[in-house]
Amino acid sequence: MENLDWKNLPFGYIKTDYNVRCVYKDGKWGELEVSSSEYINMHMAATALHYGQEAFEGMKAYRGKDGKVRLFRWDENAKRLQQSCEGIYMAKLPLELFRDACIKAVKLNECFIPPYGTGASLYIRPLLFGSGAEVGVRPAKEYTFVVFVTPVGPYFKTGFNPVKIAIVRDSDRAAPLGTGVFKVGGNYAASMRGTERAHDAGYGSPMYLDAKEKRYIDEIGAANFFGIKDNTYITPKSSSILPSITNKSLIQIAEDLGMKVERRPIEESELSTFEEVGACGTAAVISPIGEINDLDSGKVYTYCKDGKPGPLSTKLYETLVGIQYGEIEDKHGWITIID
Ligand code: PLP
Ligand code: COI
After folding, report:
1. 224-229 vs 285-294, strand pairing mode
2. What confidence category does residue 261 fall into, taking pLDDT thresholds of 50, 70 and 90?
3. What is the mean pLDDT of residues 218-244?
4. At 102, is the secondary structure helix, strand, or coil?
5. Does any domain span residue 187?
6. What letters, b where the CB count within 10 A reaches 16 and e where it falls short, cover 173-199?
7. Who's near 6: CB < 8 A, 6+ residues apart?
8. Which residue of 14, 183, 186, 281 lies most exposed, with the fewest beta carbons within 10 A?
9. Mean pLDDT, the chain, as a whole number?
10. pLDDT tens, position by position, 54-111
11. What's the 155 CA to ligand 1 centre distance in angstroms?
């Protein structure tokens, strides 16, 4: 793709050549099909459209200096999609079908995988939804699984530079016993009010506190939160946040780097004690946070006072990205090379 400005790609949708699809009908999954259409022809009474029976995943394919293309922990995404399916009563997608569909979609769109060194990658978006017609509130009998890919740049315009975050208190993303732990579309619809409020106030993303007490940190827009102090990586334990695969990997990397790790509830007031804070996720990678503004109380927490990411966030970032691009040994078996 000679005409793509790889170094300045936004995190957005760019049409690629093919997508991959599979339908669940009469109690079983069918064959994978390749399509060059960007459209889905579906029943107007599909449960996805009315009752939000939909879940998705987000992964990236990375082209290394050696030219090889790598997937990072696809099995974790496949398992999380299965959990989402269980969470909202959809047909469960077999792990191998998830893998085959993702690999096929990447290979078919090989020319859209950004070159090494551009900071861009190929975002993989698997989605699964109720495509069968129902009018009563009940699970569909038919489901459709689609994987499309699109080349993307950094999620936050700031890239690996400090981003500003706003605590929003006048809307919740997910309830304590709701669907926050699943990657279902409804959570993102619920997060739009907070996201827009943060954007309107000039912030990169909202930070959600726990919906019950508004006391503990939940997560940041489409990313998990971590704080660092006393050589310890601390990240929230909550029943309403998405179990981030990036965060799970950073926990392991932090341990490998000799840091201590704590997963526990984090009170907002503890924000003033962290040396470094960040957001992490597939899209966000690690985004160091420079400021957190509690819009309604007026309290402001500042970090990165020299304008630069902190030393431990930088080390974690370099190690994670180094593994993803094949430059640091993959000692935990996280990488699948696509050939
Ligand atoms: N939290 C939310 C709400 C997300 O949408 C994402 C993105 O997938 C994450 C956290 C980070 O998860 P992961 O690291 O698995 O991409
Ligand atoms: C991801 O990190 O893959 C996400 O899901 C972010 C996305 C909702 C934009």
Report:
1. unpaired
2. very high
3. 97
4. helix
5. yes
6. bbeeebbbbbbbbbbeebbeebbebbe
7. 114, 115, 118, 120, 151
8. 14
9. 96
10. 999 999 999 999 999 999 999 999 999 999 999 999 999 999 999 999 999 999 999 9
11. 12
State the sign of the Cα–Cα–Cα–Cα dihedral 152, 157, 160, 166.
negative
Active site residues: 183
Strand partners, 158: none
How many Å lie between the centroid of ligand 1 and the Cα of residue 244? 5
Residues 126, 147: Cα–Cα separation, whole Å: 4
Give distance in angstroms: CA of 56 to centre of ligand 2: 9
- Considering the domain architecture, whether residues 196 and 295 belong to the same structural domain is answered as yes
Instruction: State both tokens at 261.
Output: 């790790």
pTM, full prediction:
0.97
Cα dihedral 241→243→249→255 (10° resolution): 70
The position carrying tokens 């060059």 is 36
Instruction: Examine the domain organization and report whether 91 and 240 are in the same domain.
Output: no
For the CA of 207, the nearest ligand:
1
* Paired tokens of 62: 């990375």
DSSP state of 63: E
157 in any annotated domain: no
Residue closest to 267 by CA, chosen among 236, 232, 225:
236
Q: Kindly state whether residues 207 and 252 are assigned to the same domain.
A: yes
**DSSP for residue 39:** -
Which residues have CB under 8 Å from 115's CB, separation 6+? 6, 63
Inside any domain, residue 287: yes
Q: Are 228 and 135 part of one and the same domain?
A: no
Confirm if 42 and 131 have CB atoms less than 8 A apart.
yes
- C-alpha radius of gyration, the chain, whole number: 20
User: Which amino acids bring their CB within 6 angstroms of ligand 1?
Assistant: 58, 219, 222-224, 242, 244-247, 281-282
Structure-token pair, residue 305: 């006072």
pLDDT-derived band at 2, boundaries 50, 70, 90: low
